[in-house]
Amino acid sequence: MTSVADQLDTVLQKTARLIELCNALQEENDLLNAENLVIRKNLDAEKTKNQTLEEKLRVLKLAKSLEGTSEKSLDIKQKINEFVREIDKCVVLLKK
Questions:
Q1: How many whole angstroms separate alpha carbon 58 and alpha carbon 64?
Q2: Residue 61 CA to its chain's centroid (Å)
Q3: What is the distance, to the nearest Å, from the Cα of residue 41 to the centroid of all Cα atoms in its chain?
Q4: How far, in Å, CA of 83 to CA of 86, rounded?
Q5: Rounded-to-integer distance, Cα 63 and Cα 61, Å
Q6: What is the pLDDT of residue 43?
Q7: Which of 14, 29, 50, 80 has the most CB atoms lying inside 10 A of its own CB?
Q8: Which of 84, 96, 82, 81 is nearest to 55 (CA)?
Q9: Residue 63 to residues 5, 50, 51, 68, 78: CA-CA distances in angstroms?
Q10: Could you give the angle at which helices 4-67 and 73-95 cross, rounded to 10 degrees?
Q11: Burial level of 55, CB count in 10 A (0-12/13-18/19+)?
Q12: Interval 41-61: pLDDT, tens
């Protein structure tokens, strides 16, 4: 049978080991949180870039569609003005 002192020593050793493990896990958690933050910022930047490219693609498609039409220049100017107003609205929304 082990003595009380031996049992107490074993409990203290196990407690110290648990504290070390807890500290190691806390450090790992902090590192993972920092990495997560960086990845989220990169994702937000890529989303913004994607939205910009999609808008450019839409404008290019529009320009290409206007290229082949035989509408009067006044109608084309009105369409362009309408698209410019829509783009301005989008820019205002992006600034918010």
A1: 10
A2: 27
A3: 5
A4: 5
A5: 5
A6: 96
A7: 80
A8: 84
A9: 86, 20, 18, 9, 13
A10: 170
A11: middle
A12: 999 999 999 999 999 998 888
- 17-45 residue pLDDT tens: 999 999 999 999 999 999 999 999 999 99
Q: Which residue has the tokens 């958690």?
A: 29
- Determine the 3-state secondary structure of 94 from DSSP: helix
Establish how many alpha carbons lie within 13 A of residue 71's alpha carbon, considering only the half-sphere containing its beta carbon. Answer: 13
Taking every pair of Cα atoms in the chain, the longest distance, rounded to a whole number of angstroms, is 104
Specify whether the CB–CB gap between 90 and 55 falls below 8 A.
Answer: yes
Number of Cα atoms under 13 Å in the Cβ half of residue 14:
6
Distance (Å, whole) CA 45 – CA 61: 24
- Tell me the backbone φ, ψ of residue 70, rounded to 5 degrees: -115, 30
